[in-house]
Structure formats: structure tokens, C-alpha cells
Amino acid sequence: MTDYIEYESTGKPHPYHLVRPSIWPLLSAFAAGLLAVGGVMFMHDKGFAVLVLGFLAVLACMFFWWREVVFEAVVEKAHTIVAQIGFRFGMMLFILSEVMFFVAFFWAFFASALYPVGGIWPPEGIHTVNPFDLPLMMTLILLLSGCTVTWAHAAILQGDNETFVSALKYTVILGFCFLGFQAYEYYHLAHDYFGFKDGIFPSTFYMATGFHGFHVLVGTLFLLVCWKRAKAKHFTKESHFGFEAAAWYWHFVDVVWLFLFVAVYYWGGSAAAGH
Q1: Phi and psi (nearest 5°) for 6?
Q2: With contact defined as beta carbons under 8 Å apart, do 159 and 181 qualify?
Q3: For the whole model, what pTM was predicted?
Q4: What is the per-residue pLDDT across 32-88, written as a single tens digit (0 to 9) for each?
Q5: Of 80, 63, 90, 77, nearest to 16 (Cα)?
Q6: How distant, in Å, are the alpha carbons of 169, 179, 260 from that of 201?
Q7: CATH number 3.30.565.10 given to 87-271
């Protein structure tokens, strides 16, 4: 990993990674835009096909772009120690941007809860969720997944690839379990509690928890790719930033859910309703 790579741009060895021209950043921007437009249209009872097409386009861009990055790391060995420092700063800034993304939803929820229209929160007629029922089990699933991904990190640092693969597998399974329970929860909430358009409480609830669920899906797919790469022995104890980035993202997802559980499910829901 410390070997310098010789690039045609300078003709001299250096530790920096100069990326070749790629179409995937541009296509990813178009795919993300298509997904956003489809999401807005879907919220107005139309455009479901656009939403699905945008989601599939984003997945395709993720696959082909990540494949290029894996090729650079494994075959070209272009990800030197110096290049990895840049990756780490980039991932930190990305997670910071995600923090601010969720701050907007928490701001909307607290603004509505602390200064409710009509002076009542939750709004009259809203049947809130018991946080110590299914939400608590979902919390335990995510906390357990945080333990297994930390276990995987400890294993790769020790060079134990077999344990690393097993721990990653358990983390991916737990991620999909969480998504399954959230889909089950949404189905029953929409039929027995409150719909998506039944007022400010459902709007802030579904936006915050729904976008978190989307991040769990992204994080699970991220870890699934790492699991496949781990089986192919792409990671070593000296070079495993791809997994490390996924682990950072997963811990971020865990922490956001803890805030959602305390603020949205407990404080702003069950406790505020006097349950």
C-alpha cells in the first residue's frame, strides 16, 4: 500500500490518486434527480413509475461506480495511505451532511410538538405508537447490528478474515430484519393508526422514520457489498477503508434511530399523549 503509483500526468511517482474520467458521477446526479422528482410526484398521488425508475437508476449507478472503485483498490492498488486520508475526510464530510439532513426533520418535529396548533400534541384524534412494543424490538435489532459490525472491525484488524465474513453476514441479516419490521409497522400504522396525510404528526413521523429506513437500506446494501468483497478477500488489516466507511455509516444510522426512538416515539408520541 505504500508503493507509489506512476501516472502519465506527471511521469513521476507520487502517492496521490488521480481518478480517470468517469461517466458515473454525471449519471448518478441524473439518477438522484429522477428519484427526487419521482418522490415528489408520488407524494401527490402520481409518478410511482418514475419513483421506481429513479430508485433502480440509483442502484445501477451505485453498482457500476463502486465496481470501478473496487477495481482501483484491488487491481490497480491505487488507494495509497495518502489517498485513504482523503477518503476518510470525504466520508466524514458526507456523514456530517447527513446529520444536517436529519436535523431538518427533527427541527420540524420539535417545532410542531413544542408549539402545536391548538395547543395539543399529539393532535386530537391521533393514536400514537407504544414505543416499548415493536419500536423497542427494532431498537434492539439495530443496537445488536452495531455490535456485530464492531465485531467485524475488530476481526479484520486482527487479520481474521473468517470471523470478519461471519460478523458482516450477521450485520446484513439484522439490517434486513429491521427493514422487514419497519415495513410491517408502516402497514399497520397506515391501516390502524394514522395515514400519511392525516396531519402534522403523521407527516413529520413518516418523513423522519421513513428517510431513516431508506438510510438503513443504503447502509445494508453497503455492508452487503463489503460482505461479498470480504468473501473474495479484498480486505486486509492494513487496507480495509471500504468496510470502515460502511461501518461509520452504520453507526451513524444507529445513533439517528436512538434519537428517533427517544424524541419521536417516546417523548413526542407516547409520553406526550399521557400513555
Answers
A1: -95, 120
A2: no
A3: 0.85
A4: 999 999 989 998 888 899 999 999 999 899 889 988 888 888 887 878 888 888 889
A5: 80
A6: 36, 22, 14
A7: no
